[in-house]
Amino acid sequence: MGIRKLGYVGLNVTDVDAWTDLLGRTLGIGVTRAKSGMNEVALAELDEFKYRLALHPSAEDGPRELGWIVDSRQELDRLTQRLEDAGFAVKEGTADEKELRGATHLRWFTDPVGYRVELAVGEAKVRLGADRPAGGAGVTGLGHFVLASPKLQELRELYESVLEFELTDYRAPGLFFFRCNRTHHSIALAAAETPSIHHLEFEHASIDDVGRAYDRAQANGVPISISLGRHMNDKAISFYVRNPSGFHLEIGCGGIEVGDDWVPHDFGRPDEWGHRHADANPFATPAK
User: Does the record carry ATP-binding as a key word (predicted)?
Assistant: First the structure.
C-alpha cells in the first residue's frame, strides 16, 4: 500500500522542438499539446494514460516535478501525515494541475534538494494504446529515474523511512536502488556534488524494440552517450542517449522483478557487458 509506482515526470526545457523530434523520430512517441495555466505544455504519450513526460517551455533546463501514484485517498492522507511529522510542508495541487495530470487528488512537497515531489491519486486513460513504429510495440511506459545529489543521506531518509520505499541493492559507498512495487527499482539515489537527474528510463517491450530504437538513434544522428549493454543488478538491456536538456535518456527492456524475500546486497560491478560511456562515468567508483 502507499506509493504504487512512478507516474510522471515534468521537465523545464529550453528546446521543446528538439525534444519532440527525439521522441518522435527515434522512439516513435507521439506528443500532444495542452494548456497548463497560461502556458502550453507538450505531453509525451508513452502508454494509454494521459502522459508520463511533460515538457514545459522554459529559459533553463531542469526537473519541474516528480510524480508518484498513490493507491487511494486514505493512503494519500496517511503519507501526508508521515511527511508532516518528518517536517515537510505538504500543499494541495491546484485544479488546473489535477486536470493536467488526470488525477482526482494531488498534493506536493519540496524534497531536501529543492525538487517538487507530487503524490497523485488517479490516472486518466485517454487512449486504447499509443501508436508505435511498424514492427514492434516500442515504448511501454516510464521506468525509473536516478537522482544525483550532495544530500544523499537526507534523500535516503525521505524515500526509505518516510515514503516507505524498500532498498533493493546498492554499490558502496554511494549508489542506492529503491522500489515501491515488484519492479527492481523506480528510483536510484547517488552521491554527487551537484544535484541533477542523471537519467530517466523508458521501458520497451523487447530487445528488438530497443535494437530498432538504437538503429534509429544512429541513423538520426542522436548522440549515444552510453552504448548497448546489460546491467548487473536489474539485468536490463539498454542504451542511453544525451537528450536536449543535457542528461541521459535510457532506452531499456527486461528488468527483473523482486519479491518480499529479496535481500539487499552490494552488486559489485555495474554491468554484465557493454554500456561503454562516451564521457567519464561518474558512478564508476561512486563518490563517498
Answer: no
Q: Interior CA angle at 166 toward 143 and 152, to 5°? A: 85
Quickly count: other Cβ atoms within 10 Å of residue 30's Cβ: 16
Rounded-to-10 torsion of CA 180, 185, 187, 189: 120
Smallest CA-to-CA distance from 51 within 27, 33, 25, 26 is with 33
Q: Looking at residue 11, what is its pLDDT?
A: 97
The amino acid sitting at 203 is E
Beta strands in the chain (DSSP E): 3-13, 30-36, 39-45, 53-57, 62-70, 91-92, 105-110, 116-121, 139-149, 166-171, 175-179, 187-191, 196-204, 224-231, 237-242, 248-253, 271-274
Superfamily of structural domain 139-274 = 2,3-Dihydroxybiphenyl 1,2-Dioxygenase, domain 1 (3.10.180.10)
Q: From residue 137, how far is each of 48, 72, 134, 154, 213 by CA, in Å? A: 13, 31, 8, 39, 11
| Predicted local distance difference test score (pLDDT) of residue 287 | 47
Domain 3-121 belongs to what architecture?
A: Roll (3.10)
Fold match, 3-121 / 139-274: yes
**Cα–Cα distance for residue pair 47/212, rounded to 1 Å:** 18
Integer CA distances (angstroms), 235 to 104, 132, 270, 283, in order? 35, 25, 10, 17
The pLDDT score that the predictor gives to residue 130 is 64
Amino acid making up residue 191: A
